[in-house]
Amino acid sequence: MEDQQLSTRKASIYKEKIWTRDFILICLSNFFIFLGFQMTLPTIPLYVEELGGNDQLIGVVVGIFTFSALLVRPYAGHTLESKGRKFVYLTGLLIFIIAVGSYGFFPTIAFLFFMRFIQGIGWGFSTTASGTIASDIIPLKRRGEGMGYYGLSGNVALAFGPSLGLALVGILSYMQLFIICALLGLAAFLLSSRIRYKKIEKNHQVKKEAKWDFYEKSALKPSMLLFFITVTFGGIASFLPLYTVEKGIDGIQWYFLLFALALMVSRTFAGKLYDLKGHKAIFIPGTVFIVIAMLLLAWLLNTTVLLIAAVLYGIGFGSVQPALQAWSIENAPKDRRGMANATFFSSFDLGVGIGALVFGQIGHSFGYYTIYLVSGFSVCLSIILYLILLYRESIKLKV
């Protein structure tokens, strides 16, 4: 009987189409903006180092980007409901293009710091908007699966972006690299201008009450869990290339490639699993994979260990992140999806930003390996918090 009900539910879910014209356009746009972003991810720390900066300055330059994105996300969430998805998305992409394209023209840390702040504003607007646009387009019953596919567009960029950026740095100047990244942002802008954006019904009473809020309450639980997980990303994006150089270990380009491929593979089944069984089937296994990956990076005996960590981290993060994003918006009112996405990505930014800033100090004082020990501990905290949330929910159901 239970198998028959599951089969009926599957048949009902898969009747609704995900791969529409607009969904393909938002995925392509997301791919190009993420490709431009991912190409700068491992190269910005090297650029700061070339300009004379140390580990602490690298952490600050990386961190300021995420904090400026964090500051604008609540405003972006409200603006999505008041001025529409198109305005917010295209504005964010334009700011991103101008900021990234300007990096190499004035090669000083002070200028880079300022433009990273500006880039964060564009990133906060564009990523909050794109996730909301995708959730508008995806059928409700297939949201977990659809958000997984949407996330794949960013993952494909992650598969090639860091390696491509590192390869281009070897043959081009930093100025040329950053101009290429800006042109990729322009491609995203042109594609997104062709999307047929849905008109959102405005609930004036809700908007009036929510005018000065900074988060969506229904998204708080998954967003808090995400924070402790994305702290790990701040340590990897900012310091793993420098860590491997210090240890004399090759293969950092392969690390990012394998991480992204594992991320892509995990998203193909994690979203479907979420739609059928919910976050309980995904969160614990995914976070355990991440903890193991962090411990392997702390050990980092050789290239083989580095690449095993990449696969485990990709499987874990690729499973957990889309599940948490789907969870964060599934209970939000239709006119609060923008704020739900803003809350979710604010947590993401805060985790990455704090990770970059704190790990800059930790790496400078205690060595790079301690970054990944602390990262593993942070993910363990997310597991503990998740179990507490489940226990409280079970108590409520009994009452």
Mean pLDDT: 86
Cα-to-Cα separation, first versus last residue? 29 Å
How many separate domains? 1
**CATH architecture descriptor name:** Up-down Bundle
Low-confidence stretches: 204-212
Order of helices and strands: HHHHHHHHHHHHHHH
Outline, from the CA principal axes? globular
Q: What is the CA-based Rg, rounded?
A: 20 Å
Question: Tell me, what is the CATH class?
Answer: Mainly Alpha
- In terms of DSSP E residues, the strand content is under 5%
The helix-and-strand class reads mainly alpha
Helix content range of the residues, please?
Answer: over 70%
Structural features, described:
With 399 residues, the chain is mostly helical. The protein has 15 helices and no strands. About 2% of the residues have low confidence.
Relevant terms:
globular, mainly alpha, Growth Hormone, Chain: A, 399 residues, 82% helix
How would you summarize what this structure contains?
The chain has 399 residues and is mostly helical. It is 82% helix and 0% strand.
Outline the secondary-structure elements:
Layout: H1 2-14, H2 21-40, H3 43-50, H4 55-82, H5 85-102, H6 109-137, H7 143-169, H8 174-192, H9 204-209, H10 220-247, H11 252-277, H12 283-299, H13 303-330, H14 337-366, H15 369-398
Helix pairs in contact: 2-6, 2-7, 2-8, 3-4, 4-5, 4-6, 4-14, 5-6, 5-8, 6-14, 7-11, 7-13, 10-13, 10-14, 10-15, 11-13, 12-13, 12-15, 13-14, 14-15
